[in-house]
Amino acid sequence: MLNLNEQYHVPFVNRPVFGSIRPPGSKSITNRALVCAAAAHDKSVLRNPLNSEDTQVMVTALNQLGLDVRWEGPNLLVNGGVNRIKEPESEIFVANSGTTIRFLGALLAGVGGTFRLNGVARMQERPIKDLVDALVQLGVDAKCSETGCPPLWFDSQGFRHSSCRIKGDISSQYLSGMLMAAPLGSNTLSISVDGDLVSVPYIDITLEVMNAFGVSVRCDDYREFMIPATSTYRGTVYDIEPDASAASYFFALAAITQGEITVSGLGKNGIQGDIAFVECLEAMGCEAEYTESSITVVGKPLKGIDVDMNAISDTVPTLGVVALFANGTTNIRNVEHVRHKETDRITDLARELIKLGADVDERTDGLSITPVKMKAAEIETYNDHRMAMSFAIAGTMIDGVTILDPACCEKTYPKFFDDLVELLEADDG
Questions:
Q1: Is 191 strand, coil or helix?
Q2: Contact present, 397 and 13 (Cβ < 8 Å)
Q3: Per-domain residue ranges for the chain?
Q4: What is the b/e burial string over 80-100, where b = at least 16 CB atoms within 10 angstroms of the residue's CB?
Q5: pLDDT tens digit sequence for 149-165
Q6: Each residue of 34-77: pLDDT tens digit?
Q7: Angle, nearest 10°, between helix axes 173-181 and 129-137?
Q8: How many other CB atoms sit within 10 Å of the CB of residue 21?
């Protein structure tokens, strides 16, 4: 692997790029499958999951709790069962993994016990109070810091009530965590969404994974969810799709270079909402071909678009970079919740796009990007993997782009720069 200790000088190719690639497994699916497999009363095999910092944080936490989770080649073996969960240490370290603290926190509250979940400094700035409020409604003694952020602490005897309301305007992960924990209760559990719900496709992922492990949820227009008391997770063999958010960088590479790139393993019937990023590229002028097991993007001259990215907000940085190469202004809206991600993905994205020569108008819920004159720059990544990978794509067509702290990509895609270089060099040969 490339040495990513300090900075990375992006290879400047300034030509169409052609090729194919299979990104690693989806982080979103992997951590959901780990939670459901952990709660199942028998063994599961997760095939081709993501092996990265975020998923390893979840694996380490589950093993710390007394479960048996281990790698066997490219697969994860999970010997599940909540009866195995113990409290050898009540302090669970979650690094900066939002899915781990939100999913595992809800699961452990459903199991019962006294736990404290905490992470790195940035995690202590990311909101958790909406989850705390939902747990309290279910009879859990739960608390977070006065700022509404971690650490998350609770003393639980399981879910003692049968209904709760949960807000969904900051993150859909709170609802996903509660949904996956619901089968651990002794009563039929009803969950209502209070207000707007962001990133709805991620709820679809949650429901799909739960169903694969034997739990069916009744969903009424994403406003009301009901999980029967008879629900029980069962172990299974589960195949994990390549990460659609990671695939967006390679689709973007095809778009900005006017090349052609195929992502294999990710087809038109995939369960990840971020596949819809390709539709944004089509609206900008690209062509796309979908099969059952692949998606190909053919780059064409790009034009700016106006787009609501609420449902595919993890790809906001990717589209922001593509906008640098479009004719006219690209307006990204309805994504205020991305300010609470690994970094503020509106303000910090705007700052780095301006470095590269764009005219950017930042708003509370998004930003407008108009390319002016591209120039070299050192890109701050703010310990945000999506910033690093998105701006690396820009560097293939802007000479002199350097990515600072490229190692932050270990969070979800440790081999990203190796895969990028392999794709560029194979095409060059």
A1: strand
A2: yes
A3: 7-25+241-428, 27-239
A4: bbbeebeeeeeebbbbbbbbb
A5: 999 999 999 999 999 99
A6: 999 999 989 999 999 999 999 999 999 999 999 999 999 999 99
A7: 30
A8: 20
Tokens of 43: 């063994």
- Tokens in use for 27? 């982080």
- Considering the four listed CATH numbers 3.90.700.10, 3.10.580.10, 3.40.50.12780, 3.65.10.10, the one that applies to the domain covering 7-25+241-428 is 3.65.10.10
Residue 12 · residue 28 · CB < 8 Å? no
Helix (H) or strand (E) holding 245: helix 244-257
CA–CA dist 293, 209 (Å, integer): 19
For domain 27-239, give the fold: UDP-n-acetylglucosamine1-carboxyvinyl-transferase; Chain (3.65.10)
pLDDT at 427 over 70: no
Work out the pLDDT band at 429, boundaries 50, 70, 90: very low
Annotated active-site residue in 274, 314, 405, 419: 314
Indicate whether this model's pTM tops 0.85. yes
| Mean pLDDT value across the chain | 95
Based on the residue annotation, tell me whether 314 is a catalytic residue of this protein: yes
- At 223-257, the pLDDT tens digits run 999 999 999 999 999 999 999 999 999 999 999 99
In 189-298, which ranges are continuous DSSP H helix? 200-212, 244-257, 277-284
Residue with tokens 């080649």: 73
Distance in angstroms (rounded) separating the CA atoms of residues 105 and 112:
11
Closest CA to 386 of 324, 304, 319, 336: 319
3-state helix, strand, coil in the chain (%, to 5): 40, 25, 35
- Nearest by Cα to 411 from 63, 49, 64, 96: 96
Can you read off the two tokens belonging to residue 230?
């008879």
Using an 8 Å Cβ cutoff, are 47 and 265 in contact?
Answer: no
Nearest to 270 by CA among 21, 26, 15: 26
Mapping DSSP to helix (H, G, I), strand (E, B) and coil, where does residue 385 land?
helix
Average pLDDT over residues 403-409: 96
